[in-house]
């Protein structure tokens, strides 16, 4: 099964007893509308997920610094409170919009759709969604993205993929972030990769550090390739 098929099928599968099936159906309906909109404007949509503090915003800043002269890019960022992440991303010179969820622990397709008209999609090649920081709820909500990328920081411990499998099952890429801290931590990249691939054998993995720029070229090249594919589709 292709990555696209397997991850999207997983995103649509309701496994958790507490999950509200109607809510997810409504979400998927709007996610489809977003997908169609992105197909029309040939905008690559990438949903960035992780635990709180794994380095999502820092990676958005670094990616903007590296790619903003190559593509038009923008970021939509979800947080429970404050405009802080959007402010940080705007400092790089790209457009960023904060969605304040007011306590909701994830973004839903409806929230994304509501603010889409604030983005000049016809002229945006690459749109990121920085999701609310946690490995649980964001896993269940398809936002119409082309790709889901999960950061797994070395500071979190290497046991997370098996404890929070749905996030890794529904992701296309795992970025092992804060790799510069590896010499100081009991964290095995080999072990985390093995566990994550046992959950999702098609998961791509890149080790990165936004501080030292390790792996940032590989990450940017992956994005460049995906933007190209989207524009040729
Ligand atoms: N050592 C190290 N620290 C990093 C790296 N990337 C981010 N950080 C630090 O980690 C902390 C959290 O980074 P953020 O980018 O705010 O993380 P986030 O995932 O956006 O956080 P939330 O939006 O709150 O979930 C900050 O103090 C960053 O400076 C990295 O590659 N290496
Ligand atoms: Mg952030």
Summarize the structure.
Helix content is 40%, strand content 17%. It is of the alpha/beta class and 233 residues long.
Key words describing this protein structure:
7 strands; nickel; binds magnesium ion; Rossmann fold; binds guanosine-5'-triphosphate; disordered N terminus; GTP-binding; hydrolase; 233 residues; P-loop_NTPase; alpha/beta; 7-stranded parallel beta sheet
List the helices and strands and how they pair.
Elements: H1 3-12, H2 21-41, E1 44-49, H3 56-67, E2 73-79, H4 84-90, E3 95-100, H5 109-115, E4 126-130, E5 147-153, H6 160-163, H7 165-169, E6 173-177, H8 189-199, E7 204-207, H9 216-232
Parallel strand pairs: 1-4, 1-5, 2-3, 2-4, 5-6, 6-7
The chain binds guanosine-5'-triphosphate (GTP) and magnesium ion (MG).
Structure, described:
With 233 residues, the protein is of the alpha/beta class. The chain has a single domain, classed as P-loop containing nucleotide triphosphate hydrolases (Rossmann fold, 3-Layer(aba) Sandwich), CATH 3.40.50.300. The chain has nine helices and seven strands. It has helices at residues 3-12, 21-41, 56-67, 84-90, 109-115, 160-163, 165-169, 189-199, 216-232; strands spanning 44-49, 73-79, 95-100, 126-130, 147-153, 173-177, 204-207. A seven-stranded parallel sheet has the order 3-2-4-1-5-6-7, with helices on both faces. Strand 6 (173-177), helix 8 (189-199) and strand 7 (204-207) form a beta-alpha-beta unit. The radius of gyration is 16 Å and the shape is globular. The model is unreliable at 1-5 and 12-17 (pLDDT under 50). Bound molecules: guanosine-5'-triphosphate (GTP) and magnesium ion. Magnesium ion is lined by residues 56-57, 85, 130. Keywords: GTP-binding, Hydrolase, Metal-binding, Nickel, Nucleotide-binding, Zinc. It holds the Pfam family cobW.
